[in-house]
Amino acid sequence: PGTTTTGALRDHVAAQLTRARDRSRLLTDAVDDHDLVRQHSKLMSPLVWDLAHIGNQEELWLVRDVGGREPVRQDIDELYDAFKHARSARPELPLLGPAEARRYVGEVRDKVFDVLESSPLEGRRLLDGGFAFGMIVQHEQQHAETMLATHQLRVGDPVLDAPPPPRGGPVGPAEVLVPGGPFTMGTSTEAWALDNERPAHRVVTDPFFIDTAPVTNGAYADFIADGGYRDPRWWSEAGWAHARQASLHAPRFWERQGDRWLRTAFGVTAPVDPDQPVVHVCFHEAEAYARWAGKRLPTEIEWEKAARFDPATGRSRRYPWGDGEPTEAHANLGQRHLSPAPVGAYPAGASALGVHQLIGDVWEWTSSDFRGYAGFEVFPYAEYSQVFFGPDHKVLRGGSFGSDASAVRSTFRNWDYPIRRQIFAGFRCARDAERDELT
Ligand code: AVJ
Ligand code: FE
């Protein structure tokens, strides 16, 4: 790569770092100091912890490792190590205060721009294609989504604002047939892909049907009205036990008013929009709905095939719509709106097979446990992915309205416990194709 391409990459990295920081600032400047330091839910860190943790990760990887510079604040590493203190315990720690945290992340960022100026962006795997910088951009954007989830849990007057999502539209048939056979899953070429997305590998599937759109609030309300939460037939044993113990009866943030459902989002209470994808359901609720509907959740293999496989060429695309980066026309991403968009709002974002809204709107629960692909290699640290592999975490795909475009791809894998619902998670259904349905 010559100086021009390196220069262009450097500009790209700088722009992405700045965009991520603008968002962190928006999310932390929107509330007063009291709201920054307090705990809005036991499931979440205080916002001021997320902010300084973002700076600390950036310091560890870009200032110290890539830059080889002296530490900015080595004394606080332990406070902001996510493995040292549970989220619920973080408010009691001697954290940097709001002003100190802001000063700290600013100081780190100044040094990072200096490191970026002199970094060759090649020569070492961590630097190739700007990977280390891309990893830190994605880390900040992932925490921005987490901070957005904290805002959703915060009680009080609205402090965030965004235009409503675009109108819905037709999506064609309710489900499409994905042909059986091989496709390429994962990636070995995407510069900023994280270790768990690698390597690219061939996977063979049976033919299956997948819903063209995520399950809507309206459809989910039918499940509730049909007594879905009271009927153990639809639930796994673990799901039923959890639903009873946690008194689940509707998605989180829904509230019954007379004969209709209201939902509160970012401090605003309004009737549930029947055409928007359902959000804030846990894996167990998604699984129960699917069984009630006579279907099942897709595996993550099926989800990725529906998103990437182009039957005309046999190739896997980078995104459902092709290889080009997401635009406003393709997907509801980046907190541009404060809710999922109604079904059919993104016809330009449909996959080759005609599946809509795979990227953006809501994270989609899959039936798969989080595991490394064959050939998985830890890179650059085991605590990003590997320590979470196993049966305790379920994979989610596609990103939400709160995910930034830099931190979601058709290969991107998110994971969480099957009981979690504070994340922006919904789902779509799939089913096996019967022999007489194969065309
Ligand atoms: C990939 C969203 C599960 O928030 O725990 C942030 C991302 N990793 N800091 C998380 C992450 C380290 C991670 N998830
Ligand atoms: Fe983190």
From TrEMBL:
Keywords: Iron, Metal-binding, Monooxygenase, Oxidoreductase. Fe cation binds at residues 53, 139, 143. Pathway: Amino-acid biosynthesis; ergothioneine biosynthesis. It catalyses: gamma-L-glutamyl-L-cysteine + hercynine + O2 = gamma-L-glutamyl-hercynylcysteine S-oxide + H2O. Its cofactor is Fe(2+). Residues 16-147 form the DinB-like domain. Its EC number is 1.14.99.50. Gamma-L-glutamyl-L-cysteine binds at residues 87-90, 416, 420. Pfam families: DinB_2 (PF12867), FGE-sulfatase (PF03781). The keyword Iron applies. The keyword Heme does not apply. Residues 173-431 form the Sulfatase-modifying factor enzyme-like domain. InterPro entries: CTDL_fold, DinB-like, DinB/YfiT-like, EgtB, EgtB_Actinobacteria, Sulfatase_Mod_Factor_Kinase, SUMF_dom, SUMF_sf. HAMAP family: EgtB. Catalyzes the oxidative sulfurization of hercynine (N-alpha,N-alpha,N-alpha-trimethyl-L-histidine) into hercynyl-gamma-L-glutamyl-L-cysteine sulfoxide, a step in the biosynthesis pathway of ergothioneine. Belongs to the EgtB family. This is Hercynine oxygenase. The lineage of its organism: Bacteria, Bacillati, Actinomycetota, Actinomycetes, Pseudonocardiales.
